[in-house]
Specification:
Rossmann fold, 37% helix, elongated
Length: 398
């Protein structure tokens, strides 16, 4: 049994001895590499709500760390309370569940390795879909009515496990209680891990059949090609951040996006405008970025006009307002800029566009590079709404 064990939680950090294992506690915002550990225990409760962009980004960052660890062979346990990180991980297997008000403690235990642990600590308010309705790799325990309460799902070379544990908030704060639970958990895991992660000795790989080598060679080539394509996808994933980020992160993302379209940008931290578009090191367009829960409103346009005046620029100096409206919407639909705001933009010599328009513009440039040569001129001369779709763009004046 390995001693490379990571405990992710919201309360403690550092290392400690639990029974015969040395465990490493980490909290949110940790920079520790998860894939260096064979066992990762996620104690839910760190992210109950997305109350900031930073928290949303942190959940996504941790999810990527955990998925990378799974691909490399780690076992990841999810226990205690549901939170947004655990919900994100459960989405990887499309696990359907419902939450009940009253906890169930008389679980039907399917794996003897966890019998002592579940009889002592087991309990759940979560009902996962029955085994016939979802693709589990192993069932650890169910309710008496047949709903799954604990399960294993193989991911990459590793495995994702959910174990039921009904607990109170006060218990979660009790270091001794959690320590006792984790000690019993690791005891249960010692034999179970051998069942699900059994692998042949390393020397077996030194023998190969005649037809194995060309297959291995092909797989290596495919993996190299996959890495190249994943790098391309990573670039587009970075660009799409402008569709959901907010605040300073959104400003930086928009600037990066424009740079990718060969439009130069410059930020001056002293003043109130977000950044400038520059041409030959000359500031040619004053720019503002807004991440909004609702739609763009006239005061947002007026604010950019005021910033232009504060920098002693004329009323007709080019101004660009980039908006990520309806930031909490569930889809890209219904994000059009309304007529009143378009007319306001025309009157104040401001060009508006949505971050969605920027994405569509990037796609158009990929199809037709000539559009890029006219892009800077559009930002410098047009007012109203630069509406861009997959088929083209137009300037709306009303």
């Amino acid at each position: 049994m390995t001693n490379r064990i990571l405990i992710y939680n919201s309360k403690w950090e550092g290392s400690n001895e639990l029974g015969k294992w040395t465990v490493f506690y980490v909290k949110p915002n940790t920079r520790k590499d998860f894939d260096k550990f064979d066992i990762i225990v996620i104690i839910g409760g760190s992210f109950d709500t997305f109350d900031s962009v930073n928290q949303r980004s942190e959940v996504m960052r941790l999810e990527r760390k955990i998925l990378t660890s799974l691909e490399k062979g780690s076992i990841v346990f999810m226990i205690m309370r549901f939170d947004l990180l655990i919900l994100q991980l459960l989405k990887t297997g499309s696990f359907q569940f419902s939450v009940k008000q009253e906890p169930i403690v008389d679980l039907v235990i399917k794996r003897a390795e966890f019998s002592t642990l579940l009889k002592k600590f087991g309990g759940t308010t979560i009902h996962f879909a029955k085994p016939t309705e979802c693709d589990y790799d192993d069932i650890i325990c169910t309710t008496k009515s047949g709903f799954v309460a604990g399960f294993t799902k193989k991911v990459g070379r590793g495995a994702l496990l959910f174990l039921p544990r009904y607990t109170t908030y006060e218990e979660l704060k009790d270091y001794d209680f959690v320590g006792e639970y984790l000690t019993d958990l690791l005891d249960s895991l010692e034999s179970y891990r051998q069942r699900i992660m059994y692998s042949p000795p390393s020397w077996v790989r030194s023998y190969s059949f005649h037809e194995e080598q060309p297959v291995i060679s092909d797989i290596n080539k495919f993996q190299e090609e996959i890495k190249k394509r994943e790098k391309v996808l990573g670039k587009y994933s970075k660009l799409k951040e402008i569709l959901w980020l907010r605040d300073n992160e959104l400003v930086d993302s928009v600037m990066n996006f424009l740079n990718q379209m060969e439009v130069g940008t410059k930020k001056d931290e002293i003043y109130e405008e977000d950044f400038w578009i520059v041409e030959n090191n000359v500031e040619t367009v004053i720019c503002e970025v807004k991440g909004l829960d609702k739609n763009l409103k006239r005061p947002h346009i007026s604010q950019l006009d005021e910033h232009r005046g504060a920098r002693e620029k004329s009323d007709d100096f080019p101004a660009l307002l980039v908006v990520n409206s309806f930031n909490r919407a569930d889809s890209l639909k219904g994000k059009d800029i309304s007529t009143n705001e378009i007319k306001k933009a025309v009157r104040t010599n401001v060009l508006t566009l949505r971050t969605l328009d920027l994405c569509n513009l990037y796609s158009l440039i990929e199809k037709n590079r000539e559009i890029q040569s006219n892009l800077l001129n559009l930002f410098k001369t047009e007012t109203g709404w630069l509406k861009v779709t997959a088929s083209g763009y137009k300037i709306k004046k009303e």
